[in-house]
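Exercise 7b. Backbone tokens:
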């Protein structure tokens, strides 16, 4: 939280410095003939205005704008937000001119004239900074809300009595015959619960971290379903660097288990694949993650608002608003494919997962293992 606060104010400071330069050349009458001392003085005055206005806007708008947005109808909410920022522009201008009077740069008798001349510029400056802050904070709040909804939905699916009962019953059955398997399954259940309860988690995580959670979930469910649940991982080596929405693949896999494996006597098979689409520059590199099953399919055109896939679409659109990101669903009897496409983000490389013993199957590139599934129905 402290790190995000520091970054927030750092962005405001950088924005103030840039905005002061814009004001200098756009409104101060500075030309190439202006002497350097005059340019410096004009810039310092513009920077003073920015310094007085930006902290006021930065500390007020994140608190005021959400309240206005919730309690005032559109489009009047934007009108009220604009009026609030205009008031802060006037207050910031008065403070700036007061400082200039105090240090002797402006005669006290000229306060009114300076106020009249600067308020227009201050309003433009305030609206620019304030609207950027407001849009950014509201988008961040929507991302946090959508992520929290996904976490809550996943947590609810895991704390359902039948899931916990089946998991604990399977652990009990393994204790005598396979103590190490029971211990491993207990750790996997604990890992699942931790990932669901982690409210401070970042919205984007590595593909490697996401798949660890997915494999913990599948290992538990495979003890319950036995050979009815079959899965394969096919991950291109270059795809481990992908950063994806937290619990995105988990959402898709839970959907397969619920709608493809559970209702069928013979179960279903699913494949989780990840590849890289690297077109020629300047086109950006993208990662393509697919989850495919051979279940009965479903009507992808009528997903309710609270459905996991609908939430994933909303989160993806919020996390990558201007980039090539999408969630595509193709479903028919016998095959359902859900494709998540995300752009490359420049972050640290993720380490590939090591194959887990006994449960499911794993393939990285063209290599894979087919371990034996055990458990009780």
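Sequence design result:
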């Amino acid at each position: 939280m402290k790190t995000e606060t520091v970054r927030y104010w750092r962005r405001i400071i950088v924005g103030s410095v840039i905005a002061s330069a814009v004001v200098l050349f756009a409104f101060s009458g500075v030309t190439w003939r202006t002497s350097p001392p005059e340019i410096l003085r004009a810039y310092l005055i513009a920077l003073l205005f920015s310094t007085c206005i930006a902290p006021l806007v930065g500390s007020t708008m994140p608190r005021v704008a959400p309240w206005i947005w919730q309690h005032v109808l559109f489009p009047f909410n934007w009108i009220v937000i604009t009026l609030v920022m205009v008031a802060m522009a006037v207050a910031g201008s008065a403070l700036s001119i007061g400082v200039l009077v105090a240090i002797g740069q402006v005669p006290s008798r000229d306060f009114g004239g300076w106020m009249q001349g600067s308020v227009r510029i201050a309003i433009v400056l305030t609206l620019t900074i304030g609207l950027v802050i407001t849009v950014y904070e509201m988008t961040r709040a929507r991302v946090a809300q959508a992520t929290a909804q996904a976490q809550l939905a996943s947590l609810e699916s895991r704390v359902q009595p039948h899931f916990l009962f089946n998991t604990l019953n399977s652990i009990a059955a393994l204790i005598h015959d396979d103590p190490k398997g029971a211990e491993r399954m207990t750790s996997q259940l604990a890992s699942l619960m931790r990932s669901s309860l982690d409210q401070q988690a970042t919205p984007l995580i590595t593909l490697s971290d996401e798949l660890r959670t997915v494999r913990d979930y599948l290992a538990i469910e495979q003890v319950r379903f036995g050979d009815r649940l079959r899965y394969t991982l096919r991950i291109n080596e270059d795809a481990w660097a992908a950063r994806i929405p937290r619990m995105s693949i988990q959402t898709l896999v839970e959907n397969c288990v619920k709608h493809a494996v559970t209702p069928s006597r013979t179960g279903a098979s699913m494949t989780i694949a990840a590849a890289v689409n690297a077109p020629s520059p300047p086109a950006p590199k993208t990662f393509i993650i697919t989850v495919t099953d051979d279940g009965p399919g479903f009507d992808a055109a009528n997903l309710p608002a609270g459905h996991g896939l609908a939430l994933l679409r909303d989160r993806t659109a919020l996390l990558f608003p201007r980039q090539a990101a999408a969630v595509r669903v193709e479903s028919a009897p016998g095959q359902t494919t859900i494709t998540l496409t995300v752009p490359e983000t420049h972050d640290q490389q993720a380490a590939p997962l090591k194959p887990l013993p006994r449960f499911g199957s794993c393939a990285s590139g063209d290599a894979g293992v087919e371990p034996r599934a055990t458990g009780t129905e």
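Instructor comment: Strands lie at 204-206, 229-235, 243-245, 268-277, 286-293, 326-332, 335-343, 362-364, 367-369. The CA atoms of residues 147 and 315 lie 7 Å apart.
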